[in-house]
Write the structure tokens for this entry.
Amino acid sequence: MTTPPSAFPDVEKLVVDVLKADPALAGVTVAAQAPAGFDGTQSAVLVNRRGGAWIGDLHLDKPLVEFEVYAATKPAAHLLANAARKALLDKIGKPLGSSLVQDVEEMDGPRWMPDYLYRGANRYLVVIQVSLTVNP
């Protein structure tokens, strides 16, 4: 029997929780949406699921998770991008909510990407694939 994709946890929330708990990201806004008043110059990591795949027979979700990482300067944004990457990569083999992190693989990043919505922004993008199993 296959598992419907709706049975899988909210990966954005799980990843936001992981990043918020990491001491290297203390004081950084970590969220799935930009907060009110955000202009791209504040230290922030915005977490978004960009797609991925689920494999029902294996109870495996393989989402692509994007980090949009902002800071006041380009070097500061790069440091935050690396801290966010490390926080998630450190979860391989560990439980995450009711799931187990089977693998974490970087697909792209950190990549400097100017942000045309927030003119003063210093932004890096990172895309990571997370493989999560859940109990049926």
